[in-house]
Amino acid sequence: MCITCSVISGSAALHILDIDRTVDWTPSDLDVYTPLYSAAQVISYLCIVEKYEPYGDAINPPYPGVTSGFRSVVRLRRGEQSIDIIQSLTRSALHPIPYFWSTHVMNYVTADSFCVAYPDLTLAGRALLNPIQLLELEHPSSNIVDKMLKYIDRGYDFRKHPTAWEMESDAATECNDGPACFASWDHSVPTTIPPPTTAL
Question: Does pTM top 0.70 for this prediction?
Answer without folding.
Answer: yes
